[in-house]
Amino acid sequence: MPTIDDFESLTIRVGTVVRAEANEAARHPALKLWIDFGDLGELQSSAKITDRYGPADLIDRQIVAVTGLAPMRVGGFRSDVLVLGAMENGEVVLLSVDDAVPPGSVVA
Fold it and tell me: Is the pTM value of this prediction over 0.70?
């Protein structure tokens, strides 16, 4: 079972999507995202959010993601962060912030 120390090794941050496209090689429909996290730089994620979002919907959108994970490959695409959302009727609704914040802001 994970401990608080495990949780504290990760950080939840706000990033701004700068590029998005379909991840055609993924087993399940997904989008490739390039996300600006300020001082952390531009990180990537493959996100299964195609039921509700298309690539054009995400450009310049601020999202919330878990950083500090080991990168993994999804359909040949490097995924550095886990984009967060709430499940509603089997679809992911992305978490976001009420007001714009600098990319890389830590979620408290």
Answer: yes
